[in-house]
């Protein structure tokens, strides 16, 4: 009889894990809370490294017809006041995609729902392992047992945080909003725009639905008056930029709502996978390692880690931990590689070398 694995989480890594586990012939129970009303997730740049993983998970066809668009140009004011085409630095492997992220998540959910043996639309509240079995309690009191778990619950790491130590490189946070396009007479540029400022950096990308995704990344102690308090503070912040503000105004995007705040720092768990009471667990996606979005690593890593889970847990459930250990090493090697890349990217900006945000990332603060 197929062994049962529970997957916790319905973002990106969760459905990827469900598909991979089902492909490996395992029985999957998917604990997948339904999206909240009006769910419109941020983060739309998909790196080209994701393409082979999408293919392996059987999602290539769905991706091709979903209205995502190629992202050919990234203009950045980074290290200089001038906007420069920095594709070679920010996208080492060539162009990626600007996703319709909500559609992407819905497609992933649909495919994973079909592959899972059982899907439970609820949140996990507690997990314990003993004698090779995980006992999961869901909100509402329902219980589930499984021989292994995949924790894909994002930064909250609902299970993994109790069995690993969290490390953190920074406290980066994001204020983000989607701006509707109100001026039909202007065709907005399709380039992604990145702009460094004294207190952090900005990102703007035209979404496939025609709205502009705008995010400001900074440290919480540098935010000053929170832009979530109202439009004035958010409009003022946008107005302090050299390029982003002009881009928004000239192209006819409307700043109509205060932004939402979210964590965007680089954090990781040690170990990112292991055993508890002899029962295997794997952290995948942001749960295992969450990255500063500057390099657009998050979605690809979430897909990569989910796609590894079938092979890793099939072996672990037969008593062979080689793949589990290799997975944990790959995650930590990936984090080390990312930290080196992050240092060199931030090192390119020297105009604000005395400002705390940049000093922290240049290793001096
Ligand atoms: C502002 C911003 C911009 C970004 N831009 C990009 C970008 O352009 N490109 C890129 O590659 N990455 C980007 N990222 C990062 C990217 O969004 C994440 O890396 C990615 O969403 C991680 O996917 P995940 O599945 O691991 O986690 P999530 O997408 O966070 O999903 C976690 C899931 O777990 C569920 N969950 C949580 N707790 C429980 C529980 N107790 N029980 C059951 N389920 C639970 C949640 O409901 C959710 O479904 C950005 C991040 C931010 C903050």
Task: Describe this protein's structure.
The protein has helices spanning 13-23, 51-56, 60-64, 87-90, 101-115, 231-239, 244-250, 298-317, 322-347, 356-361; strands at 4-8, 27-31, 45-46, 69-71, 74-77, 84-85, 96-98, 118-120, 124-130, 133-138, 143-146, 148-151, 165-168, 173-179, 192-197, 200-206, 212-218, 260-263, 267-270, 273-276, 279-283, 289-290. With 365 residues, it is of the alpha+beta class. The protein has 2 domains: 4-68 and 99-169 and 266-342, FAD/NAD(P)-binding domain (3-Layer(bba) Sandwich), CATH 3.50.50.60; 173-263, 2-Layer Sandwich (Alpha-Beta Plaits), CATH 3.30.70. The protein has a 7-stranded mixed beta sheet. The chain has a 6-stranded mixed beta sheet with strand order 8-2-1-12-21-20. Strand 5 (74-77) and strand 6 (84-85) form a beta hairpin. The N and C termini lie far apart (56 Å). The mean pLDDT is 93.
Write the layout of secondary structure elements.
Blueprint: E1 4-8, H1 13-23, E2 27-31, E3 45-46, H2 51-56, H3 60-64, E4 69-71, E5 74-77, E6 84-85, H4 87-90, E7 96-98, H5 101-115, E8 118-120, E9 124-130, E10 133-138, E11 143-146, E12 148-151, E13 165-168, E14 173-179, E15 192-197, E16 200-206, E17 212-218, H6 231-239, H7 244-250, E18 260-263, E19 267-270, E20 273-276, E21 279-283, E22 289-290, H8 298-317, H9 322-347, H10 356-361
Bound molecules: flavin-adenine dinucleotide.
Task: Write down how many β-strands occur, each being a DSSP E stretch of 2 or more residues.
Answer: 22
Number of helices: 10
State mean pLDDT (0 to 100 scale).
93
Which value, in Å, is the CA radius of gyration? 21 Å
Approximately how much helix is present in the residues? 25-40%
By CATH, the architecture of the largest domain is named 3-Layer(bba) Sandwich
CATH superfamily of the largest domain: FAD/NAD(P)-binding domain
The low-confidence runs, each spanning 5 or more residues with pLDDT under 50, are none
Structural class: alpha+beta
- Approximately how much beta-strand content do the residues carry? 25-35%
């Amino acid at each position: 009889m197929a062994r049962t694995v529970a997957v916790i989480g319905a973002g990106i890594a969760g459905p990827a894990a469900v598909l991979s586990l089902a492909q490996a012939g395992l029985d999957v129970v998917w604990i997948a809370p339904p999206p909240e009303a009006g769910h419109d997730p941020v983060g739309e740049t998909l790196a080209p490294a994701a393409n082979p993983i999408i293919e392996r998970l059987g999602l290539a066809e769905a991706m091709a017809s979903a209205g995502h668009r190629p992202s050919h140009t990234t203009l950045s004011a980074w290290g200089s006041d001038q906007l420069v085409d920095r594709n070679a630095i920010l996208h080492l492997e060539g162009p990626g995609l600007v996703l319709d992220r909500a559609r992407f998540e819905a497609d992933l959910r649909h495919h994973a729902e079909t592959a899972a043996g059982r899907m439970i639309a609820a949140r996990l509240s507690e997990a314990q392992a003993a004698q090779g079995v995980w006992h999961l309690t869901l909100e509402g009191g329902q219980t589930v047992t499984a021989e292994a778990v995949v924790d894909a619950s994002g930064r909250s790491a609902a299970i993994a945080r109790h069995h690993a130590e969290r490390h953190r490189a920074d406290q980066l946070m994001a204020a983000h909003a989607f701006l509707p396009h109100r001026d039909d007479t202007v065709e907005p540029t399709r380039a992604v725009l990145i702009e460094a400022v004294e207190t952090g950096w900005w990102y703007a990308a035209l979404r496939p639905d025609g709205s502009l995704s705008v995010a400001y990344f900074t440290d919480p102690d540098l935010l000053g008056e929170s832009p979530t308090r109202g439009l004035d503070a958010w409009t003022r912040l946008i107005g302090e930029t050299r390029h982003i503000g002009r881009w928004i105004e000239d192209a006819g995007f409307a700043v109509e709502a205060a932004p939402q705040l979210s964590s965007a720092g680089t954090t990781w768990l040690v170990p990112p996978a292991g055993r508890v009471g002899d029962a295997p667990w794997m952290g995948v996606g942001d749960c295992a390692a969450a990255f500063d979005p500057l390099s657009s690593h998050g979605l690809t890593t979430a897909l990569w880690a989910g796609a590894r889970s079938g092979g890793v847990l099939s072996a672990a459930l037969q008593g062979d931990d080689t793949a589990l250990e290799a997975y944990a090493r790959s995650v930590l090697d990936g984090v080390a590689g990312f930290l080196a890349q992050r240092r060199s990217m931030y090192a390119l900006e020297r105009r604000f070398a005395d400002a705390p945000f940049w000093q922290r990332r240049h290793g001096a603060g």
